[in-house]
Structure formats: C-alpha cells, structure tokens
Amino acid sequence: DTAVSQTPKYLVTQMGNDKSIKCEQNLGHDTMYWYKQDSKKFLKIMFSYNNKELIINETVPNRFSPKSPDKAHLNLHINSLELGDSAVYFCASSQGAGEWTEAFFGQGTRLTVV
Amino acid sequence: DAKTTQPPSMDCAEGRAANLPCNHSTISGNEYVYWYRQIHSQGPQYIIHGLKNNETNEMASLIITEDRKSSTLILPHATLRDTAVYYCIVSRKAAGNKLTFGGGTRVLVKP
C-alpha cells in the first residue's frame, strides 16, 4: 500500500496545454504539499494545504492551481504549460501544520513540456 | 530559515560508517536540524531530526555540536542502498512544515 501516490508518473505534453497531476495519501494526514524539483535537482516547495485550506503559496505563477477536494487529496492543475514547467513534481503529506512531523513524499511526476 | 552548507559529494566504502557533515552557523534557538535523503528517481525520505541533543534511530545517528552551528549524520554501516543525495535542513518546527532543500551531499557507497 503506497502511502502517498501520484498519477501519472510521467507526463509529456505540448506547450500551451492544460494538465493535472493527482495526489492521494492514505496516512490520515491533514497537511499536504507540492514540491518542484528542477533540472538542477533543487527541490522547492510550491504549496501547502492543511485541512483543505491553503497555508503556503510560494510565489508560484497563477497558472498553477492546487485543488484539495478533501484531506486525502491534493491535485495540481497547470494551465498554459510552458517549457520551463518541465520538472519533477512531488506531492507530500504530514500530520499537523503547527507541530512538525516527518513528511512522506510520493514517487514524483516527471513533466516534460515540448 | 537558516541556510545550511554541505559538501557536494563524498564516497564511502560499503560496511563502513559514513559521516556526513553540515554547517548551519546561523541557526536560531527554535530551529531544528532535519535530514532527508533522496535515492535516485524516488521522492525524499525522512531520516532523523534533532534540536540540541544527539539522536539515534534505526537508520542513523545525528550528532549536533554544543553551539548547534554544525551537525553530523552518521550512517553506521553503509550499504549500497544508501547511495543517495542527503539533505540537511534547518527549520522551525511550527513553520507549516516548510522544508527548504539545499544542494545536499551526493553519497556514493562503493563495494
């Protein structure tokens, strides 16, 4: 049983398209995140949701819109994809926004924009 | 959050202890030291964290200097599966769980 699962694992699409990446966690956590790992392998946080409410938004272009239908899901929708959006996107979850616990990461979604 | 400095890479012999250093000279009193690792093509994996006391779990030990300006992650008996990028992160505990990853140390365990 995968704790944090993302779909799809690979996504190749053309510039200008709109795409979504889905994330689900079965750990009962109340906080979920999206991270982006660029070609230089730097991991940066994009968003964080706690109990379906946005708590971190790290100056991400508004073409990126996270959606949390419930505590177990945090999807990432990207409009008008650009070449620079090519990266690996990781979803993560943890328990509690105020009291830190370890974050569990998914396997990543490799997005390639051509 | 305080910045960290780690060597970009290091090699380690299989079966030997791997000692991974991290400098965090600007750490403040309420910031913790966390270690994660990322094995190739996988998501980051939590290893250990600490405030000022040394910590040990089934994966590793964390030694934090008395002034808290540096720390060392110790993998007691490195295996080939420990080959990964290791990230030292300093962050407040109640910071929305925001983890700021630096460049990390690429550890290669050799047979």
Summarize the structure.
The complex is a heterodimer of chains A (114) and B (111). Chain A has 114 residues and is mainly beta. Chain A has no helices and eleven strands.
Could you estimate the helical fraction of the residues of chain A in percent? under 10%
Distance between the termini of chain A: 33 Å
Integer average pLDDT of chain B: 92
SS-based class of chain A? mainly beta
List keywords for this structure.
heterodimer; A: about 110 residues; mainly beta; seven-stranded mixed beta sheet; 11 strands; B: about 110 residues; five-stranded mixed beta sheet
Furnish the topology, listing elements before pairings.
The complex is a heterodimer of chains A (114) and B (111).
Chain A: E1 4-7, E2 10-13, E3 19-25, E4 31-37, E5 43-50, E6 53-57, E7 64-70, E8 73-78, E9 87-94, E10 104-105, E11 109-113
Parallel strand pairs in A: 2-11
Antiparallel strand pairs in A: 1-3, 3-8, 4-5, 4-9, 5-6, 7-8, 9-10, 9-11
Chain B: E1 9-13, E2 18-23, E3 31-38, E4 45-50, E5 55-56, E6 61-64, E7 70-75, E8 84-92, E9 105-110
Parallel strand pairs in B: 1-9
Antiparallel strand pairs in B: 2-7, 3-4, 3-8, 5-6, 6-7, 8-9
Commentary on this structure:
The complex is a heterodimer of chains A (114) and B (111). The model of chain A has no long low-confidence stretch (mean pLDDT 91). In chain A, the strands form 2 sheets. In chain A, strands 2, 4, 5, 6, 9, 10 and 11 form a 7-stranded mixed beta sheet that branches. Chain A has a 4-stranded antiparallel beta sheet with strand order 1-3-8-7, with no helix packed on it. Chain A starts with a strand and ends with a strand. Chain A has strands spanning 4-7, 10-13, 19-25, 31-37, 43-50, 53-57, 64-70, 73-78, 87-94, 104-105, 109-113. Chain A contains no helices and 11 strands. Chain A is mainly β and 114 residues long. In chain A, a hairpin with a 2-residue loop joins β5 (43-50) and β6. Chain B has strands spanning 9-13, 18-23, 31-38, 45-50, 55-56, 61-64, 70-75, 84-92, 105-110. Chain B is an all-beta fold and 111 residues long. The model of chain B has no long low-confidence stretch (mean pLDDT 92). The relative contact order of chain B is 0.35. Chain B is globular. In chain B, β5 (55-56) and β6 form a beta hairpin. Chain B has a 5-stranded mixed beta sheet with strand order 1-9-8-3-4, with no helix packed on it. A 4-stranded antiparallel beta sheet of chain B has the order 2-7-6-5, with no helix packed on it. The termini of chain B are far apart. The A-B interface holds A 4, 31, 33, 41-45, 48, 50, 55-56, 90, 92, 94, 96-108 and B 32, 38, 41-46, 49, 85, 87, 91, 93-103.
